[in-house]
Hints:
The complex is a heterotrimer of chains A (600), B (282) and C (317).
Chain A: E1 7-18, E2 23-33, E3 37-41, H1 48-54, E4 63-72, E5 75-76, H2 82-88, E6 93-96, H3 100-103, H4 110-121, H5 128-137, H6 156-168, E7 174-178, H7 186-203, E8 206-211, H8 214-220, E9 223-228, E10 231-237, H9 238-243, H10 248-256, E11 304-307, E12 310-312, H11 317-321, H12 331-335, E13 343-356, E14 359-372, E15 376-380, H13 387-394, E16 402-407, E17 410-411, H14 421-426, E18 427-430, H15 444-456, H16 460-473, H17 490-502, E19 508-512, H18 520-537, E20 540-545, H19 548-554, E21 557-562, E22 565-571, H20 572-577, H21 582-590
Parallel strand pairs in A: 3-8, 3-9, 6-7, 7-8, 15-20, 15-21, 18-19, 19-20
Antiparallel strand pairs in A: 1-2, 1-4, 4-5, 9-10, 10-12, 11-12, 13-14, 13-16, 16-17, 21-22
Helix pairs in contact in A: 4-5, 4-6, 15-16, 15-17, 16-17
Chain B: H1 11-29, H2 64-70, H3 73-100, H4 104-116, H5 120-131, H6 135-161, H7 165-172, H8 177-195, H9 197-213, H10 225-232, H11 241-267
Helix pairs in contact in B: 1-11, 3-4, 3-6, 3-9, 4-6, 5-6, 6-8, 6-9, 7-8, 9-10, 9-11, 10-11
Chain C: H1 2-24, H2 30-35, H3 41-50, H4 57-69, H5 77-81, H6 89-124, H7 129-142, H8 146-160, H9 181-210, H10 213-220, H11 225-262, H12 268-278, H13 281-309
Amino acid sequence: MSDAPAPVVQVVGLSLGLTTGDPVVEDVSFTVGAGQILGLVGESGSGKTTTALALLGYTRRGVELRGGSVSISGQPILGQGISNLRNLRGKVVSYVPQDPGGALNPSLRVGDAVMDVLRAHRAGAASLESVKASLERVELGADPRLPRRYPHQLSGGQQQRVTIAMACVCDPPVAVLDEPTTGLDVITQDRILAELARLRDDDGMAMVYVSHDLAVVAKMADRIVVMYAGRVVESGPADEVIERPRHPYTRALVSAIPDFRRPRALRGIPGVSVGVGEWPSGCAFVPRCRHAIGRCSESLPELSAATPDHSVRCIRWQELASDGAEPGDGRAAATAVEAEDEALLQVDHLEVEYRNGRRRNTVVHDVSFAIESGRCVALVGESGSGKTTIGRCLAGLHPPSGGRIVFDGSELAAFARNRPLAARRRIQIVFQNPFESLNPRHKVSSSIERPLRVLRGLSQGDSRTEVGELLDRAKLPRRVGDRFPIELSGGERQRVAIARALAAKPDLLICDEVTSALDVSVQAAVLELLSELQRDLRLSMLFITHNLGVVACVADSVLVMDRGSLRESGSVAQVLNAPADEYTRRLLSAAPCLPDGAYS
Amino acid sequence: MTGRLRFMRSFSGAVGVTIVVFVVAVAIFGRYVAPYDPNVPVTVPLAPPSSHYWLGTDFLGRDVFSRLLYGGRSVITLAALATGLGYLIGMSVGLIAGFSRSRIDPVLMRSVDVMLAFPPLLFLLVLISGAGTGVEVLVIGVAVIQAPGISRIVRTATLEVSVRGYVEAAIARGERSYAVIVREVLPNIMAPVLVDSGLRFTYSILIIASVNFLGLGLQPPASDWALMISDNRQYIAIQAWAVLAPAAMIALLTIGINLTGDAIARSLGRSYVPKTARSAVI
Amino acid sequence: MGRRLLGAAVSLLVASVLIFIGTSVLPGNAASVVLGRGATPAAVQKLEQQMHLNKPLTTQYTNWLGGFVHGDLGDSSIGLAQGQKHAPVWALISDPVKNSLILALITALFMIPLSLGLGALAAVYAGRPADHAISIMSLAAIALPEFVIGSLLVGVFFVWLDVLPPVAIIPPGQSPLSDPTKLILPVATLLLASLAAGIRMVRAGMVETLQAEYVMAARLNGLSERWVLWRYAMRNALAPSVQVLAQNLQWLIGGIIITETVFAYPGLGSLLVTAVGNRDLGVVQSVAMLIAVVYVMLNLVADLIVLLLVPKLREPA
Lengths: 600, 282, 317
């Protein structure tokens, strides 16, 4: 990377808080040079979106500015009157929203939406030609009728291109992008990222790229700022932060990213990040930090310069620098579980359709596979590929329209209620959304007890004792049993859901995107738990996911699905390293992953 | 104050509950303190208020104050019965439709749509023209008017809840539908379903009182606030209290219930969608 | 659109069945009910014949509905019982229909712009004290039945102030517009009963749109506030508002039935109430069906407007 160009974005000591008093963002400073991309990384609740919106002089309802300054291209942003701000937004700094579907006016043709931005800032240049030109810039020029379309007539990727076109149409020097690819599938995400990189390279647009996904940021950003509990904990050149992270949080975060190129045992970060209003007086990461010592909670560590260009907010960074890599790996050994020939589950020519009125929609077409006893099979695909439907069929929640499912030698009925008790007990499922997976009206112990009573016929006393053991297994403190789900975090809830499934003493565990709603650090911990359970209890597992990195970390073999059909299947090593199918290859090349030198 | 009564902390909640308790107490216990027999003339018709007859007398010379104390029980009881029956029907239909997600659902919901496309008061009037005036006609008619709206809300809530993990886990365990509904679904749909129950109750009061006022519900000489209004309307210039007093009681009751419902909805953190007494039925 | 038309037709068909069953099948011989207890068997038999009660129920139904579709609303049962050869419902209702339409149109003329305007205003200034005041007051007004509002208004404007007449009796053949003061209290009653609900619902729809992400995105693109309000917020809030207004107009129908009785206004509503009281089944059936048609038409028109306003709904799913 060349010498840093003159900064176009200068944020100094930015602080924001809730109008009710609690701080949300405190003392955030960074600069972005012309034509550079700054990645603003953090988990939910880190204050990254609040920071990003402040760059446009915008605060959400209930949030207020406490101090600091933001200047863009030399123009101060904060403290400007609303009409000045209006002139700056879109012209000097523009915004690309997270959910393009919600951010486009549903009753406005997309061409008119772009035109509105032009009219607001360059009334003279507002013409159909300039609208078309701006759409061409984001590769939407092929269809001449596109400007006449309404947002709902476009795909998610096209919608996001339109919002990018709106953000670029007045050629602002800076754009703020708030998780711009989060709702998109991997292949579309890859193309949008390429688009953004081109806008930076060709037009010299500087960007602030906000994301929770370190792998995406590593690919895009020139510099990375890591936020935790409203403060910057580390900032530096992207490759340095990824390869030689100094802060224990950044290290843990990098180590928690499942990477299909370098499968390894993941290390989750214990606990959850502190929320607004719960900030401790010292370092906010202390409760989760493996290196924390007494001094850490005494006072807030200052940001100190590890190199002139790389700063870190940790009092022990120098001691830890020599500490080397976090212990890890051992995955290779774990994979070597000897394959048994016996197939526990055999799926033959499965067909599934959804009926919508008289229309039939085939969502799974001629899918066959087997799961051997004690193995973990990953089912990979984008949303709409039919992978979740297969899991639901196995659990007896959705009837197949053709084919058969054979479990331990006998064919399974379509609906769970028609299956024998043994089959219902031996197949268990864990669902995607931890917030909807436990009955909010029942205590955790009561939720876990239910399968013990219904499926295993235990007495009340016996099930009480076993609930405690199950909580231990799920690595939850026993007192969690007396809590209601609302008192638990997403990760804890998912552990309870796993404990509830284990209560049945299952042989086959179906995990349906169990980590996709969790923060990366929590995801790693849950995956760690699942791998351990699989090994200790000799569980067979069907692991449904869209994340190839996760596949590499937990599975023995993998099935790749696309639009209802099986595209490829084989061992993890074979499919991920030498894919035979064209679609798998595209999926793999589009999947974001850390650079080779990344810290591990 | 416990969590459930949090809504009382708001001004409108406290005022609303006070008003409702007052009016209901008058309606239920008022008759025990009434100075006169409500159905017997005590002095000349249309006498103005005096120390003996606090609110004067009506067009037949009966004591308005006594009739006022007697006149609330009927409308509140009938409205409560009708609303309860409406919930019984509506919740059963909604739960079956929402939980089964099978072929019954579209059929049930189509018929609910059709029912909702029929003006409620007109339905009641047609029913009365065929079946005659009577308490049971009133209760059943209003229950049938309420049921479709309730079943639609119950169905929506049930559909939403029954795709959640805990319900699906129970289904995958092979538990009986009844057990799944009672243990997993019902407790989680009660809040949204009951949020507008106060407004539905108000609507029942409103429509029953209206039918009584039209002379097509309770028949004279029953003491009933709405009947008192319609009976004495002609003489409002001479003895306004005979009309205004029962009007004020009905107004207090419905306003009180609405304020309470509004406060409850707010305390549950719902953006108070303007469920008015009338819109609650739709 | 075809589906909606079909839906409306089905709704009307079901309504006609409900009306017919409601009036015909329930206990008691309609003819003897109309004539009263002292009627001779011969008179009952004669009336039965005139009312076609001797024919099978399905024939009665198809004759009635067939007549209705062709504009023949049948005969008044009371008229027949009083010995008239023909007592066409049309003749009975032609004046009341006009009177009711006038009352409804005047009310709607005030209600639509007022609830749209005030609702939007309350939404834009949401959370301010004035908005809270409007909310509480409208909440109170909503809760009152029309006959209570009407009685209270009469108490104030006739008994106390003595500026307005307590009734709105219109002599036959005269237009209600010849003495507009008579219309003031009925219209005010209907407005008070329906306006509060309209304002509240329009406000809620508008508040929701103002919080939509595309409104925030438009602001972040530097669009002017007026532009954001009109082109982004209002435009998308209009569709739900149209549905709200249609609903309000539908409630107006129920309100008119009662308000007309309160003020002895000679409209379709008071005619229906009298007919129900006298059990004049011929009139009840036809008037009820007419009201049902208006009700369903309002729905259909609202759907049509929404269809024009929301591009997403314009194409098949």
